[in-house]
Amino acid sequence: MTTPDPEIIPRDLRFGVKDHPDPRWLGGEQAGSALVDAFAVMLPEGERYFIRALKPFLPQVTDPELRQDIQDFCAQEAFHTREHLGYNAALRSLGYDVDRQEESVRWFFARFDTPLARLYLTCAIEHVTYALSRIVIERPEIMDKAHPAYRRLWRWHALEEVEHSSVGLRVLRAVTPGVPGWKRYILRCAALGLMLPGMVGLAMISARRNLRATGGPSGWGLWRAALFSPGWVRRMVPTMLAYLRPGYLGRNDCDAALVAKARDALDAELAAA
Description:
- By secondary structure, this protein is mainly α.
- It has one domain.
- 70% of the residues lie in helices and 0% in strands.
- The protein has 11 helices and no strands.
- It has helices spanning 30-54, 64-93, 98-110, 115-138, 141-144, 148-163, 167-175, 181-213, 220-227, 232-242, 255-272.
- It starts with 29 loop residues before the first helix and ends with a helix.
């Protein structure tokens, strides 16, 4: 049995990461910071893609609650895009080859630019961001020693990713009533299988290039951050496996409690700012 989705709340917040470029913002760890930064570089292009994926299906969605969720999802992603453009500007000022990384993301998305392809891929990528966001919320110690501007941004982003995590999958089911369940299942799992290795691989490659360009530590630090401490990839595994369940709609019984915890943490951050 699943609980209802938490309310989706677009929050027009600004964090000023652009004004605080810091290659060691994650507790003084340059390799760990670089890995998260490499993931962050992908987000503006991804968030624009997600909006393009969902908005065209609004005329086909008749459920008023889902229609509102699509609009709130798009509003959240628009605010995320703005803040992550500032984040990418900070990375450029550190000498990271952000333009090359963004071009790689644009090239990938251009290969999947039909309405349904965008929707299937959006569902898969949103589940990855949901898995990472759960880690940020469930393991607050990961961000406790981070630079305040970065910590606030990631806690805000993680909260909103969990809030809207089921929207894409619900839209997919609503707009493909004539597609057999088995076929929808195969296609959404195939999208995850296509995207996940590329996404992780690009983040690792980009982070390594950035470290080399700025005289950072060896690549071992990246593997340590990915697999051991904090172990982003390792900790993602249980949530990623949930996506392989037939009929999965992105709802988990713990999400309401997770959102409540994340909202309290964000409120505390903003109060202390």
